[in-house]
Amino acid sequence: MKEHEMKNIRNLLFIGASGAGKTTLAEQIFYLTKASNRLGRIEEGNTTMDFDPEEIAKGMSLGLAIGYTNYLEHKINILDAPGCPDFIGDAIVALQAVENAVIVANAAGGYEVGLELALEQIEDRKTGIVIVVNRMDNEHSDYDKTLELIAENTDVKPVKIHIPIGKESAFEGVVDVIKRKAIKGGMETEVPSAMLDKMEEARMHLMEAVAETDEDLLNEYLENMELPEEKLIAGLKKGILSGEISPAFACSAGTGEGVLALLKGVINYLPSPAEANTIEVLSNNEKSSLICNPEGDLLGYIFKLYADPGMGDFAYVRMFSGALKSGMEFYIPEKDAKDKAGTMYYMLGKNRNDCTEIAAGDIGALLKLKNAKVMNSITSTASKLSLVPIELPTPTTWQTLKAVNQSDEDKIGTVLQRVIAEDPTIRYELNVETHENVLSGMGEQQLQLVLKKLKNRYKVDAILKEPRIPYKETITANSEANYKHKKQSGGRGQYADVYFRIKPTERGEGFKFINSIVGGVIPSNYIPAIEKGLWETMEKGIIAGYPVVDISVEVYYGSYHEVDSSEIAFKIASSMALKDGFKKAKPILLEPIHELIIIVPSEYMGDVMGDISTRRGKIMGMEQRGKKQYLTAQMPLAEMYAYYPALKSFTQGRGRFIQRFSHYEKVPEDITQKVIAAWQDQTNE
Ligand SMILES: Nc1nc2c(ncn2[C@@H]2O[C@H](COP(=O)(O)OP(=O)(O)OP(=O)(O)O)[C@@H](O)[C@H]2O)c(=O)[nH]1
Ligand SMILES: [Mg+2]
User: What is the CA(61)–ligand 2 centre distance, in A?
Assistant: First the structure.
């Protein structure tokens, strides 16, 4: 089919603030281009893209959805990302799947947090940055102001391709500054005379922007103060492809005005997979570039999983090169495993149309893959190709997940894996120190959604609670200890006697066992039992129930009994001696300290710094980048569980951070006492 040739495809990802109208815009596009025969509405819960029951209930997108339409002999694939910052992972992963990142801004929304976040995601992007100012029919809509705010706050310099005719309830169409035509209700008409000056001004800006991308064009422009239309368009296309020009459009997804004009702009000016055909890849793990074409080496990318409770898991796939055909086996380099493409589909929200291949440049879905997961490459075994892995933001929110009913504990593992596989930023790990299953991600809403999906899709009730801190126990002084374990209870008795020297070691050294028994005062066959007794005691903890680290124990003397000594007796003696010696060696608790990079607009610096010190945090450095401050700090993990909501509240949602574990440090005395008391309460219960 002609429209599936690379040059006739446009791949668009809608990103931007929640409520900017991305899903509504997709809906309007499907309706106006007859991909769907009714216009769904968010309020009625019947849009094509927000089909998941949780999305319908909330009236907003919670996961990336895909759809497509055919218009003017082009196939337009639309990826609709959720704007809520908790679900940013979907957008980050999907950005790699498209030539065009379409920032949808609310014309009446100002410089919203979600808009800022979306713009941050495309900071380093080299191609296809498009601005659509939506909701032009809204009260207080302001096209120019919205574009100015973007230009002021970022390196993106929007260049108007369309300008709106009227605004608010009088918004009735757009003027195409290239064609010098008005488009109202999808029909071309003459430009209203009152707008001619504005149009010429915008046209001049556009021409300047295009001229600046190319020396020849610049010379020609400076000479004639005009560029011929075909050169203007060719230069514009090139500028968009290279990311130097960000075209701006105006529309109302609500009324539909400007939407078909936008689609024409998409077809006429935005890069197709045929133009953006050179991509960075790994070839044999070395960076190289690949020129994509339908006959080339197979290369695809899985950018989203959707776990349909009835159908199974859908993997949304972008093919870059070659053609994936139904029935084909393929290789997943990230997993070093094979998988097989069964039935494949072009998806329109939750609706599916069967297809037999997904060719280079196109987007579709595969069902029930065995091994492939999100961010995996689809290749042939021989090619040694894979996509360059992307980096996801680190978690900001942690919660322990527990099944409400004991009987669900076993089931929860498998269904939870399916649910969290949908969102690349969610991690689920067993903390071996606290024995808790910790779910981490980008925000409270995201983790709550996991609970809802578990309940509604799989009938599993689970709860979230604040995780325990993985403290560790250690000592700060040397001590000596002796324990003689002796029992005479008729028959064979028990006897073991050990002398220990206990010392702190360097932080991070773990545990050192030194055997300096001489002269066989303890026979060597009992030494392993002594060591085992130590390990078991250290794992369980001595003062507060947390693992013991960074100590050395030297067994230097002892005695035994020919008949009554046994391995078990030495294990007990060893354990008791350690407990005693440990308590005498000035024990302390250690807590994990994380390093954070906190990114906030400069005006909030004072508040953020003040808050860090109330959380036992230390500021290690700061750096101004553009209008933002990058603060490096250290903070105890115990204080970080509540940090993200606090940071958001005093930066009006604009602060964020990345973090990683740094080291263990001594817990202050007052907190240590509380932790010990809590453990004693618990063990006495
Ligand atoms: N008046 C008006 N309302 C709009 C327009 N576009 C969207 N809306 C409304 O704005 C609200 C949010 O629209 P959505 O399409 O869900 O916005 P979104 O960008 O997808 O939001 P998230 O999914 O949360 O990221 C809905 O109530 C829409 O009806 C528009 O152009 N004009
Ligand atoms: Mg949406």
Answer: 4
- Give the pairing type, strands 299-308 and 551-559: unpaired
452-455-458-463 Cα dihedral, nearest 10 degrees: 90
259 lines ligand 1 (CB under 6 A): no
Which atom of ligand 1 sits closest to the CA of residue 43? 27
- And the tokens for 582? 């440990």
Summarize pLDDT for 38-74 with one digit per residue, the tens.
999 999 999 999 999 999 999 999 999 999 999 999 9
Q: Is 61 a pocket residue for ligand 1 (Cβ < 6 Å)?
A: yes
In the chain, ranges of CATH 3.40.50.300 domains: 2-190+243-269
Of the candidates 533, 556, 563, 541, the residue with the CA atom closest to the CA atom of residue 482? 556
| CATH class given for the domain over 278-387 | mainly beta
Q: Which atom of ligand 1 is nearest to the CA of 27?
A: 15
**Quick one: which ligand is closest to 83's CA?**
1
Q: Which ligand is nearest to the CA of 15?
A: 1
Helix/strand/coil for 259: helix
Q: Where do the CATH 3.30.70.870 domains begin and end in the chain?
A: 397-468
Spacing, Cα 629 to ligand 2 middle (Å) = 30
Instruction: Supply the DSSP symbol for 33.
Output: T
- Top CATH class of 397-468 equals alpha beta
- Ligand 1: residue of 12, 15, 23 to mutate (most ligand atoms within 8 A of CB) is 23
In the chain, the percentage of residues whose pLDDT exceeds 70 is 99
**What per-residue confidence (pLDDT) applies to 2?**
53
Query: Which ligand 1 atom lies nearest to the CA of residue 104?
Result: 19
Angle separating helix axes 229-241 and 215-224, nearest 10 degrees: 140
- Whether 432 shows a pLDDT value over 90: the answer reads no
Strand ranges, E, within 50-128: 65-71, 74-80, 100-106
Average pLDDT over residues 441-457: 95
Closest CA to 210 of 185, 183, 230: 230
CA–CA dist 618, 554 (Å, integer): 37
CATH number for the domain whose boundaries are 589-670: 3.30.70.240
**Structure tokens belonging to residue 252:** 């109302």
Taking the centre of ligand 2 as the mean of its atom positions, its distance from the CA of residue 79, in whole angstroms, is 10
pTM: 0.93
Ligand 1 nearest atom to the CA of residue 134, by list position = 31
Give start and end residues of each alpha helix (H) in 489-543.
527-540
Q: Which fold has domain 473-585?
A: Ribosomal Protein S5; domain 2 (3.30.230)
Whether the CB of 18 sits within 6 Å of ligand 1:
yes
For the Cβ of 252 lying below 6 angstroms from any atom of ligand 1, the answer is yes
Contact between 517 and 552 (Cβ < 8 Å) = no
